[in-house]
Amino acid sequence: MQQNKEIEQSGKSVESKYGPIRLLAATDRLARPWKNGGGVTFDVLSFPEESSLETFAWRISIAEVASDGPFSLFPGIDRSTAILRGEGFRLAFGDGRVEELRLDAPAFAYPGDVETDCTLISGPVRDLNVMTRRGVYRHRLRLVSGDATAEGEAVLVCPSGAARITLADGMNVTIYDNDALVLTAPLFRSDEPVWLVELITV
Description:
There is one protein chain. By secondary structure, this protein is mostly beta strands. It folds into 2 domains: 13-27 and 138-201, Jelly Rolls; 29-134, Jelly Rolls (Sandwich). It contains no helices and 18 strands. The chain has strands at residues 13-16, 19-24, 31-33, 39-47, 58-65, 69-70, 77-85, 88-93, 98-102, 108-111, 116-120, 125-133, 137-149, 153-157, 162-167, 172-176, 180-183, 187-201. The strands form 3 sheets. Strands 1, 2, 13, 14, 15, 16, 17 and 18 form an 8-stranded antiparallel β-sheet that branches. A 6-stranded antiparallel β-sheet has the order 3-4-5-12-7-10, with no helix packed on it. Strands 6-11-8-9 form a 4-stranded antiparallel β-sheet, with no helix packed on it.
């Protein structure tokens, strides 16, 4: 990862006019293998921080999916997934629905407590996942560029390359391949497409 000139230390909060912002560098994440051996997960951020899979209110992660197989069930959780790298995959749900997720397509939202089988379209995939506990938080995951407005708590994820983020007070931050930026400012501008995660209390 190239050095971020505006926030030199990953995880460190820097004050802007609208409150603290925090860089979470992709290079700082540790891989956590799946129980079924079908991939690995890199935790980006969760709330409360240090919460478990059973206690989080919201959770953002990036996964490397290496083979076909079922997704883990998460009772009471709503989730969204977007493809960051690779051709994509098909999701077959226990209620009979089949959805195809591909690179550069919009994120797909679905319940985490419905049986879901994943079939890779052509080779391994890297994806971005957002989960919120139903009745506590709701979320949106969308690709934005140019001028944008975030609702609630906001986290930006750079899908690839680099993106320069400019806040309304003029502060600039550059994020690189799969870096995340935690914002409290509702208004920002990105010179390249970035995934915007909006986390909204219910």
